[in-house]
Design brief:
By secondary structure, this protein is an alpha+beta fold. It is built from one helix and twelve strands; from the N terminus they run αββββββββββββ. It has two domains: about 1-60; about 65-218, Thrombin, subunit H. The longest helix has about 55 residues, at about 1-55. About 20% of the residues are buried.
C-alpha cells in the first residue's frame, strides 16, 4: 500500500513538473514570438517613416501651368555609370516620351530617354551629352557637363553675374520655361568668353523618387 501511495505521489509530482515546464516553455516561446513581432513592427515602422518622408517631399515639387507631375520611383542606377543615367518605373503606358523634363524638389534633374512599356531611362544633368538651353537674368546660354561638374557657356550677351545667382531652363527647345537648375558658384573668363560654374547638385547623388512633367492638353 505504501509503495502504491509513493508511486502515485511521484506520478503527481511528475505531472505537476511537466505542466510547470510546459507553461514556462509556452511563456518563453510567447516572449520570443513577441520579440520577433516587435522587431518586425520596428522595421516596418522605419520603412513607412522613410516612405512618408519621401512622399511629403512631393508637396515641394514644382508645379507648372499646363503640366502635371507623374511621380515615379528609381529602380536602377549603375554604380559604374552613376552620373549619367537612372531608370524609373514610369513608362509608355503613362504616356512617358523622350525629352520630357524630370524633376525633384530642388529642380531639374534630367531628361527622359528610351521609354518602353515597363520603364524609362533618365539622362541626368551630369551626363556628358547634356546640352540644355538656360537663362540667367536676361541672357541665355547652354548648360553642359564634364561628367561631374555643371557649367554654362555660349552666353548671349555681357551680364553681371554674382555667386548665388540662379539658373533656369529658358523655355527654348523641348523643356518648359523657368525650371530651376542650380546656382552660380564661380565666374570664369575663358578665351574672352564668360563661363559659369554651378554649385554641385548633391541631391543628384541620392535620388529615390522623381517626377516627370507631362504636358496637359487643354
Amino acid at each position: 500500500m505504501k509503495k502504491y501511495v509513493y508511486n502515485t505521489a511521484l506520478i503527481l509530482i511528475t505531472i505537476i513538473l511537466i505542466f510547470t515546464i510546459n507553461n514556462i516553455l509556452k511563456k518563453t516561446l510567447n516572449i520570443e514570438s513577441n520579440k520577433a513581432d516587435i522587431t518586425k513592427l520596428k522595421s516596418e515602422n522605419i520603412f513607412l517613416k522613410e516612405q512618408l518622408k519621401e512622399y511629403t517631399k512631393y508637396n515641394d515639387y514644382l508645379e507648372i501651368e499646363h503640366y502635371s507631375n507623374i511621380f515615379s520611383k528609381i529602380i536602377f542606377r549603375n554604380i559604374y555609370d552613376y552620373n549619367n543615367q537612372i531608370t524609373i518605373t514610369a513608362n509608355k503606358n503613362e504616356e512617358i516620351q523622350n525629352n520630357m523634363a524630370a524633376i525633384n524638389e530642388y529642380g531639374l534633374i534630367g531628361i527622359t530617354k528610351n521609354s518602353n512599356k515597363n520603364q524609362s531611362d533618365i539622362q541626368l544633368l551630369t551626363n556628358k551629352n547634356t546640352e540644355i538651353s538656360v537663362k540667367i537674368k536676361d541672357a541665355y546660354g547652354i548648360l553642359k557637363s564634364d561628367g561631374t561638374k555643371l557649367y554654362v557657356t555660349n552666353i548671349t550677351k555681357k551680364i553681371i553675374v554674382s555667386q548665388g545667382d540662379s539658373i533656369y531652363t529658358s523655355g527654348i527647345g523641348v523643356l518648359p520655361d523657368a525650371i530651376l537648375i542650380g546656382s552660380v558658384k564661380e565666374v570664369k573668363i575663358n578665351n574672352l568668353e564668360i563661363e559659369l560654374i554651378l554649385n554641385e547638385r548633391t541631391d543628384l547623388h541620392d535620388l529615390k523618387y522623381i517626377a516627370i512633367l507631362k504636358k496637359v492638353v487643354v
